[in-house]
Amino acid sequence: MHTYGALFRTPEFPPLFVVVCAGASASTIGGLALATIVFAGTGSPLLSAISMFGPAAAQLLGATLLLSVADRVPPRAALATCAALSACCLAVLAIPACRSRPCSACSA
């Protein structure tokens, strides 16, 4: 593949490109929203910056330290494990919000 046109003519690439772009956009918007909420609650620019850029720093650190594991673990098992771990972490993050403002999803 010598050009971007040839790359985009590959049937598998355009959907993958769109999904990765959407994920990056969602992550950026989520970080900005979290930083805004943290700043409104604390008034601290430092805590806002940590909340906004902390996930990217954690990803960089994790990639640096855990990249060698990728060669030894089957890809499907690794993806399923990472998705399950991410879902568990997000559920833990949602617990304080459920306690302070009960919603229909949290009361079940």
Which key phrases capture this entry?
4 helices; 77% helix; mainly alpha
Q: What does this protein structure show overall?
A:
The protein is mainly α and 108 residues long. It has 4 helices and no strands. The protein has helices at 4-8, 13-42, 45-66, 75-100. Helix 2 (13-42) packs antiparallel against helix 3.
Quick synopsis:
Helix content is 77%, strand content 0%.
Uncertain regions spanning at least 5 consecutive residues: none
Major β-sheet annotation:
none
Structural class: mainly alpha
Number of contiguous helices: 4
Mean pLDDT: 83
Beta percentage is: under 5%
Large-scale geometry: extended
Helix content: over 70%
Order of helices and strands: HHHH
| DSSP strand tally | 0
Kindly provide the radius of gyration, computed on alpha-carbon positions and rounded to a whole number of angstroms: 18 Å
Termini separation? 52 Å
What topology emerges from the helices and strands here?
Layout: H1 4-8, H2 13-42, H3 45-66, H4 75-100
Helix pairs in contact: 2-3
